[in-house]
Design a protein that fits this description.
Shape: globular
Number of strands: 2
Structural class: mainly alpha
Mean pLDDT: 90
Strand content: under 5%
Low-confidence stretches: 3-10, 12-18
Helix content: 40-55%
Largest sheet: 2 strands, antiparallel
Length: 204
């Protein structure tokens, strides 16, 4: 059993009602059984392309593309930031529980999605016209959190995925450095654009 960090708690609270044995009075800890439940949820969606709600500005007729064509690494889970979050959760759970029954499936899905070719496709998308506000800043934050999770993992696959993801992480760092000097006040709404949430993850 592992103590749940505040990060994990914030990330998984919305799902807890569906986990066997979790009630409002349950101690904040995570068993392997519960970790497997969360892993299966993420595995179900990180490679499921539809339904999908893209955050996409269409530049011309050739820019009408499928989610997977636009985002070869992060095309599932209904929207881009959710699939990035799903990848983070799979990595985090595998680090906590290396012997998860789903471990092989997790590694297979991460290898398929986080290839250097797929990440290069994400970088190319980010560099296109009218992408300055793409997933700002919630998606940026989750991508950098995934990069942090991979970089801190003493695992051969993790190191390979971390190296593959680094160009995309660098791209979002550049976006943060370009955007922040232009922002005159914090965004305090309790939803995706919240400045404090994004910065907390980005600083990590």
């Amino acid at each position: 059993m592992h103590k749940i960090s505040l990060l994990v708690l914030c990330s998984l609270t919305a799902l807890c009602s569906s986990v066997p044995g979790v009630t409002p009075r349950t101690e904040l800890s995570l068993t392997q059984e519960q970790a497997s439940h969360f892993a299966r949820l993420a595995l179900k969606c990180v490679q499921k392309e539809y339904p999908n709600k893209p955050d996409h500005t269409i530049n011309d007729g050739d820019d009408v593309r499928s989610p997977k064509a636009m985002h070869p690494a992060f095309y599932g889970c209904f929207d881009w930031h959710s699939t990035v979050h799903g990848h983070w959760m799979l990595v985090h759970l595998l680090k906590l529980f290396p012997n998860l029954p789903e471990a092989r499936d997790i590694r297979k899905a991460l290898s398929a999605n986080l290839s250097d070719k797929n990440v290069a496709g994400e970088v190319a998308y980010l560099k296109q016209a009218n992408r300055a506000s793409f997933e700002r800043t919630y998606g940026w934050a989750w991508l950098l959190k995934l990069a942090e999770e991979l970089r801190s993992w003493n695992d051969d696959d993790g190191r390979r995925w971390s190296k593959n993801l680094q160009p995309l992480a660098d791209g979002f760092v550049e976006k943060y450095l370009s955007f922040l000097p232009k922002q005159n006040y914090p965004i305090r709404t309790g939803v995706h654009p919240n400045t404090a949430f994004g910065l907390a993850f980005a600083l990590d």
